[in-house]
Amino acid sequence: STSTSSTSTSSTTSTSSTTTTTTSSSTTTTTTSSSTTTTTTSTSTTTTTTSSSSTTTTTSSSTTTTTTSSSTTTTTTSSSTTTTTTSSSTTTTTTSSSSTTTTTSSSTTTTTTSSSSTTTTTSSSTTTTTTSSSSTTTTTSSSATTDTTSTTSASTTTVSTSTTSTTTGTTSTTSATTTTASTSTTSTTTTTSTTATPILTIATSTGPWYGYERVTISCLATWTNVTIQIITKKAGGATYHDSYNTFPGGTVNPSHSSDTTQIIYTWNIVSGQNVNCWSASYSATAEFDLGATLKTTSDDTYAVTITTIAGVTSTYTGNF
After folding, report:
1. For residues 21 and 222, which has the higher predicted lDDT (pLDDT)?
2. Whole-angstrom Cα distance, residue 109 to residue 290?
3. How far is CA 264 from CA 230, 292, 301, in A?
4. 313-319, strands of its sheet edge to edge
5. Confidence category of residue 294, pLDDT binned at 50, 70, 90
6. Which stretches of sequence are listed as region Disordered (predicted)?
7. pLDDT tens-digit readout, 82-103
């Protein structure tokens, strides 16, 4: 019994001893805890930096923090770039927007440059667009109605003026627009002579003994070129008799040639001459001699080319 009691006492002493060891063990636990803190710092990045500095491992942590800080700086730069990009994008969008607005009014890329004043885009664009739009409307409606030929020329002039105005300076947008408006005003009443297509008619006489084939062309505008050819087949015994025309003297040269199967009559304008519309129409006639039988003309052909002073060319071909 006594021995047992003694053992119990020893146990108490041992426990005290163990407590001391526990303290030692506690130190180890702290070390582990410190490790955990380091890991936390790595994960939490910058925010946990202050908390980390409380630990003895602050130095190590500090190094990590510096690295992280460095990374942060890089990120910040990146962020800056992004901001700039956004800003850049905004500008581009504004320009695009202006371009679209201006495109409607000016219909020209040149005016787009004018609207690239960026800063003054809103007010500048508004003023320019209003005036420009006015000019364009006048030009378009006049051009479309009055004269197709001059439209290109008139449009080109307007565009050139717009270009000059735009280049002159963005600041003077208002006066530049005024110039454009003036040019547009001086326009579109340019009426080119109406040049309707000449009307061609044909006539024939088929014998016996004599025959002819004739083309008649109405004259609606001065002619700068005339070429007429009549080919008569020799079927039925046809031979060359003569040719005549009603063109003003000295303006057209007649000629003829033949072979075993056909007679070719030709009329060409004299170089440097014009045929004025002193008569409402002009004709060219191919004459031929025949035998006692009638001649069939369905195989005989004509080809006529007329060019007016306005540059309009009309060509006619067919059979008699």
Report:
1. 222
2. 70
3. 6, 22, 10
4. 252-258, 262-269, 223-233, 301-308, 313-319
5. confident
6. 1-192
7. 333 333 333 333 333 333 333 3
Tokens of 215: 């083309």
pLDDT tens-digit map of 222-264: 999 999 999 999 987 899 999 999 999 999 999 999 999 999 9
DSSP string for residues in the chain: -HHHHHHHHHHHHHHHHHHHHHHHHHHHHHHHHHHHHHHHHHHHTTTTHHHHHTSTTHHHHHHHHHHHHHHHHHHHHHHHHHHHHHHHHHHHHHHHHHHHHHHHHH-SHHHHHHHTTGGGHHHHHHHHHHHHHHHHHHHHHHHHHH-HHHHHHHHHHHHHHHHHHHHH-STTHHHHHHHHHHHHHS-S---PPP-PPPPEEEEEEE-SSEEEEEEEEE-SS-EEEEEEEEEEE-TTT-EEEEEEE-SPTTSEEEEEEE-SSEEEEEEEEPTT--B--SSSEEEEEEEEE--SSPPP-TT-EEEEEEEETTS-EEEEEEE-
Rounded (10°) angle between helices 173-185 and 148-168: 160
Place of tokens 């000059």: 164
* Type of residue at 104: T
CA distance 141 to 101: 20
Residue 30: pLDDT band (50, 70, 90) is: very low
Residue 188 backbone class (left: φ over 0; alpha: ψ -120 to 50; beta: rest): left
Is the CB of residue 199 less than 8 Å from the CB of residue 306?
no
Residue that is written with structure tokens 């005989």 in the block: 300
Q: What is the mean pLDDT of the chain?
A: 59
Q: Are 150 and 158 in contact (CB under 8 A)?
A: no
Q: Considering only CA atoms, which of 195, 197, 216, 213 is closest in space to residue 205?
A: 213
pTM as predicted: 0.42
Q: Which domains does the chain have, with CATH numbers?
A: 2-72 (no CATH), 100-185 (no CATH), 200-319 (2.60.40.740)
